[in-house]
């Protein structure tokens, strides 16, 4: 195996942290990203952290002709496919764009992998494939039916496409990583999550309230059947999540077909618990207002982390406090965004 790895979506939030961990582990990541939801300056930041500048191609993965050039120019055995659109609400309004971009990218990628005999793929899937789980923690063998939105549906569809592809081409290997909710940032404060406009997700909303960009947090419902009535999720530090990809890559040395792993902590945290943890970690008050439930939200979702520990020898090590401190550090260091 050579140490080059193709990383689609590598300038994005999870991708950039993973590129750093790949470099730290001795890999040579080659990034393909169309920059539709990330900035070119992320490359400078990665270089500052690691001392190495990854090779970068500004290419849309749905553009087969352009994407093929990367397969011609570079030699690699494995691909980590992060590229995709990820805003749940937007996917309900623009379903075709989501299917076209997410499913379209995966199809082009697999076709090129087959043509150039690139055998290993890790795919960024999501806890969202489990829908509203019957019980928690959720195990990988839970039944997967329908997602509650087009974004989630693209994840289910791509998982099935990869499974079918590997079945039809037995020398290929697939790892489907189902992520819990990533928060936090690299401890340097140089890379992190940079949502465009008003954030949809909880942690970036909290940090923008903390810095005064937003007035207060809206807590979407306190009448769920949970510890304090607010929604419970499995929040994982993005650096732990990134390291999970390095562990998954090693699995390709084994004789596997297509396998799914949860990357989570096995622990649930409520909205108010996260707010209070943030307040305590950073000594900042977060004003909040309880509002009605957000359409499409579920009460509880957290993931069993047992299979990844057993088979990938990976587990999340950082705490909710680490997440809160590092998210805030990134916000403070990048008041006007990554420049
Ligand atoms: P992100 O938006 O920060 O990163 C995705 C990157 O992909 C961006 O840099 C974007 O420019 C790029 N991209 C999108 N479409 C592309 C295309 N057609 N061609 C080339 N580049 C393209 O998102 P993220 O949070 O880093 O998520 C990475 C992956 O993990 C996504 O597939 C997402 O669905 C999945 N995921 C994210 C979460 C989460 O909460 N952040 C949870 C579960 C799964
Ligand atoms: N929440 C609020 N106020 C906000 C934002 C969120 O109370 O302003 C609450 C939500 O109701 C929920 C919790 O905070 O209970 C987490 O919400 P997020 O939007 O941060 O995360 P979700 O669990 O809804 O979804 C995220 C990603 C999906 C991904 C899923 C599982 O947005 O793409 O995690 O990985 F699929």
Gyration radius, rounded: 19 Å
Q: What are the secondary-structure elements, in order, as H or E?
A: EHEHEHEHHEHEEHEEEHEEHEEHH
Quick one: how many beta strands? 14
**Share of β-strand residues:** 15-25%
Low confidence ranges: none
User: Which ions and ligands are bound to the chains?
Assistant: nicotinamide-adenine-dinucleotide, uridine-5'-diphosphate-4-deoxy-4-fluoro-alpha-D-galactose
Distance between the termini: 36 Å
Q: What sort of overall outline do the alpha carbons produce when their principal axes are compared?
A: globular
Short précis:
With 339 residues, the chain is α/β, with parallel strands linked by helices. Helix content is 39%, strand content 17%.
Provide a descriptive summary of the structure in words.
The protein has 339 residues and is of the alpha/beta class. The protein has helices at residues 13-24, 42-50, 64-73, 88-93, 95-115, 150-168, 202-210, 238-251, 271-282, 306-312, 320-333, and strands spanning 4-8, 28-33, 55-58, 78-81, 120-126, 173-179, 181-183, 217-220, 232-233, 235-237, 258-263, 269-270, 288-291, 300-301. It has a seven-stranded parallel β-sheet with strand order 3-2-1-4-5-6-11, sandwiched between helices. Strand 1, helix 1 and strand 2 form a beta-alpha-beta unit. Helix 1 packs parallel to helix 2, helix 3 (64-73) runs parallel beside helix 5 (95-115) and helix 9 crosses helix 11 (320-333).
């Amino acid at each position: 195996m050579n140490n080059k790895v193709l990383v689609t979506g590598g300038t994005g939030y999870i991708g950039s942290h993973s590129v750093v961990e790949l470099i730290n582990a001795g890999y040579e990541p080659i990034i393909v990203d169309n920059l539709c939801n990330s900035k070119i300056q992320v490359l400078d930041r990665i270089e500052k952290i690691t001392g190495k500048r990854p090779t970068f191609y500004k290419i849309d993965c749905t553009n087969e002709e352009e994407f093929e050039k990367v397969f011609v120019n570079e030699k690699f055995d494995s691909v980590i496919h992060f590229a995709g659109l990820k805003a749940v609400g937007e996917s309900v309004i623009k379903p075709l764009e989501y299917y076209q971009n997410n499913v379209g990218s995966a199809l082009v990628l697999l076709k090129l992998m087959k043509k150039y005999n690139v055998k290993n793929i890790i795919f960024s899937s999501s806890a969202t494939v489990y829908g509203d789980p019957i019980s928690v923690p959720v195990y990988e063998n839970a039944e997967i039916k329908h997602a509650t939105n087009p974004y989630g549906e693209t994840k289910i569809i791509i998982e099935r496409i990869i499974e079918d592809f590997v079945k039809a081409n037995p020398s290929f290997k697939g790892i489907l990583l189902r992520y819990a909710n990533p928060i936090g940032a690299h401890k340097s404060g140089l890379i992190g999550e940079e949502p465009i406009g008003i954030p949809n997700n909880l942690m970036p909303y909290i940090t923008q309230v903390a810095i005064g960009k937003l007035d207060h947090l809206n807590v979407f419902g306190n009448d769920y059947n949970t510890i304090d009535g607010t929604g419970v999720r499995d929040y994982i530090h993005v650096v732990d999540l990134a390291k999970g990809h390095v562990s998954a890559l090693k699995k390709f040395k084994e004789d596997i077909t297509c396998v799914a792993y949860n990357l989570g902590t096995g622990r649930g945290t409520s909205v108010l618990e996260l707010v209070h943890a943030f307040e305590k970690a950073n000594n900042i008050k977060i004003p909040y207002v309880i509002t009605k439930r957000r359409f499409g939200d579920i009460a509880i979702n957290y993931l069993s982390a047992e299979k990844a520990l057993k088979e990938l020898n990976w587990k999340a090590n950082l705490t909710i406090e680490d997440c809160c401190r590092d998210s805030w550090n990134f916000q403070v260091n990048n008041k006007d965004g990554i420049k």
